[in-house]
């Protein structure tokens, strides 16, 4: 699925003029099969992929962002597997049980999203020109505690 999205993305970028030439076989294969984005996701554009190699930025903020994403993923995993069941026990009312099941489902998806973010950041995606690292695959706070439905 991600490979198809990347192929379509290259076609759109070529058509709109974002990419001036067709990528060669090595660039194309590297983009489609990039380890940081092909396993768990986090779609990134071909230009973002090229920027990893044109202007790599590896600093302490990169390590902090990767560790932060990994810890948030582990927290989501722990919530999904252990604590949600403990906070809302099975003998609760039917409505609380449905909420518990939905919360477990969502937090398990947050785990995969944060794992995807970690893999992408470790590969070099998310670097900005000012040395900061910014790549958000998921923002659970906007889903669980939205200010308005626009955030969801």
From TrEMBL:
The chain crosses the membrane at residues 28-46, 67-88. It comes from the Eukaryota. Signal peptide: none annotated. GO terms for cellular component: endoplasmic reticulum; membrane. The keyword Transmembrane applies. GO terms for biological process: lipid modification; Wnt protein secretion. Keywords: Membrane, Transmembrane, Transmembrane helix. InterPro entries: LPLAT_7/PORCN-like. One of its GO terms (molecular function) is Wnt-protein binding. PANTHER family: PORCUPINE, PROTEIN-SERINE O-PALMITOLEOYLTRANSFERASE PORCUPINE. This is Uncharacterized protein.
């Amino acid at each position: 699925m991600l490979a198809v999205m990347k192929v379509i993305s290259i076609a759109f970028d070529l058509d709109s003029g974002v990419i001036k030439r067709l990528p060669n076989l090595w660039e194309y294969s590297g983009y489609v099969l990039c380890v940081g984005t092909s396993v768990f996701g986090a779609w990134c554009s071909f230009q973002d992929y090229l920027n990893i190699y044109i202007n790599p930025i590896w600093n302490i903020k990169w390590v902090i962002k990767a560790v932060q994403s990994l810890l948030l993923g582990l927290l989501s995993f722990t919530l999904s597997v252990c604590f949600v069941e403990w906070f809302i026990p099975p003998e609760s009312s039917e409505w609380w049980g449905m909420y518990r099941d939905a919360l477990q489902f969502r937090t398990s998806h947050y785990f995969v999203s944060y794992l995807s973010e970690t893999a992408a950041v470790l590969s070099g995606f998310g670097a900005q020109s000012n040395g900061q690292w910014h790549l958000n695959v998921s923002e659970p706070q906007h889903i669980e505690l939205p200010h308005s439905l626009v955030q969801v």
